[in-house]
Amino acid sequence: MNRIRPVVVSAVALAAVASLSACGDMAGGAQGPQHGEPGHKMLQVATVDGVGAVVTDADGKTLYRFDKDLSSPPTSNCDGECATQWPPMLAGVATPMLKGVQDTQVGTTTRKDGSKQITLNGWPLYGHAGDKVTGDMTGQGANGTWFAVAPDGSKITAKSKAGGAGY
Predict the structure, then answer these.
(1) Can you tell me the mean pLDDT for 89-98?
(2) Residues 52, 76: one domain?
(3) Looking at the structure, do residues 76 and 10 belong to the same domain, yes or no?
(4) In this structure, is residue 157 part of a structural domain?
(5) Domain check: are 67 and 16 in the same one?
(6) Do both 25 and 46 map to the same domain?
(7) In the chain, what is the straight-line distance between the N-terminal and C-terminal CA atoms, in Å?
(8) pTM of this prediction?
């Protein structure tokens, strides 16, 4: 009987520490908006016919990178009218949710206006105003400088069925 008591006390203590740790993470802001709520950001991998694995946002819309940006240090060079056609993926209030993308590849950069933009392997990410539904890649290859982004942050050079439009 004396052997059982230390085991039970240890188990109870371990459970208490685990639950306090979880509360500590939540109190520190680890929780964030759920999918679909304001402030929610997501990077996920989708398969586009004829192209392969492409990184998309929470709505399944293709994300792009710009060859005139820099990955080291991460720098966006798309502002003003460019950012209207190619809206930057701005960081939300919580760490982005990831599906098929390595968390070590995801970061942010500060834009000229002071906002934070999400990066993948150092490359700032953008949407395209011409993409209306999941699977659209109307910005692919635009001006020879805009390309859909692969899960590792590299540019995808395959031509999409939608063709390229651009800024």
Answers:
(1) 90
(2) yes
(3) no
(4) no
(5) no
(6) no
(7) 77
(8) 0.75
156 domain residue, yes or no: no
Q: How many domains does the chain have?
A: 2
Element (H or E) spanning 109, and its range?
strand 106-110
Asked whether residue 132 is domain-assigned, the answer is yes
The string of pLDDT tens digits covering residues 31-74 is 445 555 555 799 999 998 888 999 999 999 999 999 999 999 99
Q: Which domain holds residue 101?
A: 42-148
Tokens of 12: 């109870």
C-beta of residue 163 within 8 angstroms of C-beta of residue 142:
no
Dist CA 63 CA 57 (whole Å): 7
Tokens 């209306």 correspond to 132
The answer to whether 56 touches 104, Cβ cutoff 8 Å, is no
- Asked if the structure places residue 162 within a domain, the reply is no
DSSP-assigned letters across all residues of 111-161 = -TTS-EEEEETTEE-B--TT--STT--TTTTGGGTEEEB-TTSPBP-SPPT
The pLDDT of 73-77, averaged and rounded, is: 98
Instruction: Report d(CA 23, CA 18) in Å as an integer.
Output: 9
Produce one character per residue of 108-121: b if its CB has 16 or more CB atoms within 10 Å, e if not. bbebeeeeebbbbb
